Amino acid sequence: MNHLSLGLEKRDRVNNAFGGGLPEGSLVLVEGGTGAGKSVLASRVVYGLCEEGTTVGAVSTALSVGEYVRQMHSLSYGVVDHLLEDRLRYFRARVDGDQRLLDRFLRPSPLWDRAAVVADGFGTLCRNDPGLGPVLGTDDADLAMERVVSRLEPALAADTVVVLTVDPATVGDRALGPLRSAADVLLEIQTEVVGQSVRRSAVVRRFAGMKSPVDDTISFSVQQGRGLVIESRTVA
Q1: pTM given for the model
Q2: Sign of the CA dihedral with 97 first, then 98, 102, and 105 last
Q3: Which pLDDT tens digit goes with each residue over 10-24?
Q4: How far apart are CA 69 and CA 38, in angstroms?
Q5: Distances, alpha carbon 146 to alpha carbons 122, 143, 182, in Å
């Protein structure tokens, strides 16, 4: 099994903490509430992959291209060259209109002509889709999400790594069930306020096909000008 390195081994310990990279063809689900650190982790994955020469497609429901570039720069994740040299393709999914954005995201497009696709705010895509959104919170939510998962299968079968960030509050546990079951890598980001600081930990619920031992709990901080920094390790 081949793995996509998260790179930057001389800068941080992220790649080592995640076992040396993400298995090709894996579905990676990152769960966490608002402000937990999902977007920073997604940004680190995107930048590290690009630095390794991996082609990446990135989608965000929150930031324009300019805003995305500035945010990445603030973390010292400079992506301008990666965008210009087509290692990174970035798309903003605006959720302020009656559009079937989830369907547009899932259908074949240049976004999927990449070794990895990262969708930051996938739960928001689901919640704001006029086809899926109204079903969330009902007894049919799991069946509807199963259909979404099935549309990811061709990309996964072609060895594309798919990373999705989700706030459980936006879709509900019933809809999350099929995503959690299908995920090869399942991370739950937890936060704890200690004094005036916030401690963040990515709890590894599942990591199939790991290249080397993966931390059970990956504690990290977010630092201006440095990005995501691993704080400690707890290995099984």
Answers
A1: 0.94
A2: negative
A3: 899 999 999 999 999
A4: 17
A5: 15, 5, 9
